[in-house]
């Protein structure tokens, strides 16, 4: 009975071309979130290893933060991270998923309203499912709509707490909201702005401090999430905000209270990466050149800097076939399928890195054009 149920669900996924299989990375990396190459940098990884050995750091934290998992290095790194992002305080979680669960489940409460961009990350949405607050999506990057929704709400419920949730670089689109305008709208209607900076940290801003800080908006955000598993090449995440917010989360955020703290050895990688990224100007500039090169190759109308570039190829079967074609040619490119993105919005997510070369980018674009120019891709389309 139980096995049959699992088999039926998987069979449905196969029929919808939405079955997922684990596949190790192979070929030229156009897929990982290791934007600056820190996770693959042998010398840097050896430095982390040596640092862990020199400081005799453990790979186990032995308990949650509120029990045996609190140790001084964790507080030190939190202060370091907070200063780096110009926030009063930081609270570290063992992943971005956990930080986002905490953010959305612990802060907005019954009677509050959460307005969120329709494309926010699954971890934020999952957090909302744990919250008793009302929530409502607004159209992607549509700040005019946020303005109208806030105006209406404020007229009807002047004292309601309202949270507005966005990403500063969208994980599946690579684009950005107009954060300055959004912050002004939130301020006007006394809404609290929450920003997930997972894909901006390390990459955006002159020192890799993310978009919020580089735009001078740190004080306009009620809370931010920064993650360590992407450009920082490590693991974990932090919620940034006031010291009051930090104390509040320590007391209420279930993903912090009921989970083992990030161990000291893992934190060493975070700490050393934070020391490294401010000086990685050359890598950031190279990334910008690559993004421009890709957009020129693709004749993209709208040009903006992002390490995440998107090629829409509607239909799970088609986008999978295209990715397989590129993979066979030696490029590690992954398809993003429905239901991760809305039906008809299936896409290749091309991730650029500081270690990719212009000739690799041009070769990938050429291969993609070859595939696009071949007739009859839709035969086996199974949307
Ligand atoms: N936020 C965004 C926007 C993400 O893309 C991701 C990971 N894909 C997360 C949060 C979760 O971070 P982590 O991988 O550290 O759990």
How would you summarize the topology of this molecule?
Blueprint lengths: L1 H14 L12 E2 L12 H13 L17 H13 L4 E5 L2 H11 L6 E5 L4 H8 L4 E5 L4 H14 L5 E6 L11 H10 L3 E5 L14 H4 L8 E5 L9 E5 L1 H10 L1 H4 L6 H13 L4 H17 L10 E5 L3 H13 L2 E2 L1 E3 L10 E5 L6 H16 L10
Parallel strand pairs: 1-10, 3-4, 3-5, 5-6, 6-7
Antiparallel strand pairs: 2-8, 7-8, 9-12, 11-12
Helix pairs in contact: 2-11, 3-11, 4-5, 6-7, 12-14
This protein binds 4'-deoxy-4'-aminopyridoxal-5'-phosphate.
Mean pLDDT, rounded to whole units?
95
| CATH superfamily (homologous) name of the largest domain | Type I PLP-dependent aspartate aminotransferase-like (Major domain)
- Tell me roughly what share of residues is in helical segments: 40-55%
Total separate domains: 2
Looking at CATH, which topology of the largest domain would you report?
Aspartate Aminotransferase, domain 2
Count the strands?
A: 12
Radius of gyration: 22 Å
What's the tally of helices? 14
What does this structure look like?
The strands form three sheets. Strands 2-8-7-6-5-3-4 form a seven-stranded mixed β-sheet. Strands 9-12-11 form a three-stranded antiparallel β-sheet. It is built from 14 helices and twelve strands. It has helices at about 1-15, 40-55, 70-85, 95-105, 120-130, 145-155, 180-190, 210-215, 245-250, 255, 265-275, 280-295, 315-330, 360-375, and strands at about 30, 90-95, 115, 135-140, 160-165, 190-195, 225, 235-240, 310, 330, 335, 345-350. Strand 3 (about 115), helix 5 and strand 4 form a beta-alpha-beta unit. The protein folds into two domains: about 15-35 and about 280-375, Aspartate Aminotransferase, domain 1, CATH 3.90.1150; about 45-280, Type I PLP-dependent aspartate aminotransferase-like (Major domain) (Aspartate Aminotransferase, domain 2). Mean pLDDT is about 95; it is low at about 380-383. Helices cover about 40% and strands about 15% of the residues. 4'-deoxy-4'-aminopyridoxal-5'-phosphate binds near residues 97, 196 and 237.
């Amino acid at each position: 009975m139980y096995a049959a149920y699992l088999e039926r669900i998987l069979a449905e996924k196969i029929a919808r071309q939405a079955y997922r299989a684990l596949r190790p990375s192979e070929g030229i990396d156009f897929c990982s979130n290791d934007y600056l190459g820190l996770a693959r940098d042998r010398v840097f990884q050896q430095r982390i290893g040596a640092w862990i050995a020199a400081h005799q750091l453990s790979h186990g934290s032995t308990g949650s933060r509120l029990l045996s998992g609190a140790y001084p290095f964790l507080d030190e790194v939190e202060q370091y991270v907070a200063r780096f992002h110009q926030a009063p305080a930081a609270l570290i979680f063992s992943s971005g998923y956990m930080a986002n669960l905490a953010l959305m489940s612990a802060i907005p409460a019954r009677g509050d309203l959460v307005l969120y961009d329709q494309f926010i990350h699954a971890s934020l949405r999952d957090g909302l499912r744990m919250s008793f607050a009302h929530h409502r999506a607004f159209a992607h990057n549509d700040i005019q709509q946020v303005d109208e929704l806030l105006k209406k709400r404020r007229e009807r419920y002047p004292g309601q707490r309202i949270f507005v949730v966005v990403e500063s670089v969208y994980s599946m689109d690579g684009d950005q909201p107009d954060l300055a305008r959004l912050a002004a709208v939130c301020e006007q209607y006394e809404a609290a702005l929450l920003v997930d900076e997972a894909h901006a940290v390390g990459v955006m801003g002159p020192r890799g401090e993310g978009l919020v800080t580089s735009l001078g908006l740190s004080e306009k955000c009620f809370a931010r999430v920064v993650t360590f598993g992407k450009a920082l090449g490590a693991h974990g995440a932090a919620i940034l905000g006031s010291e009051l917010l930090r104390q509040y989360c320590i007391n209420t955020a279930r993903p912090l209270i009921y989970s083992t703290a990030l161990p000291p050895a893992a934190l060493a990688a975070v700490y050393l990466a934070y020391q490294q990224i401010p000086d990685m100007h050359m890598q950031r500039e190279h990334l910008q050149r690559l993004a421009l090169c890709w957009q020129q190759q693709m004749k993209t109308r709208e040009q903006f800097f992002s390490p995440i570039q998107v090629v829409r190829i509607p239909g799970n079967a088609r986008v999978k076939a295209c990715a397989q074609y590129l993979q066979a040619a030696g490029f590690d490119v992954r398809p993003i399928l429905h239901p991760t993105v809305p039906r008809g919005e299936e896409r290749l997510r091309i991730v650029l890195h500081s270690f990719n070369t212009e000739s690799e980018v041009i070769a990938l674009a050429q291969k993609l054009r070859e595939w696009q120019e071949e007739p009859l891709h839709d035969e086996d389309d199974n949307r």
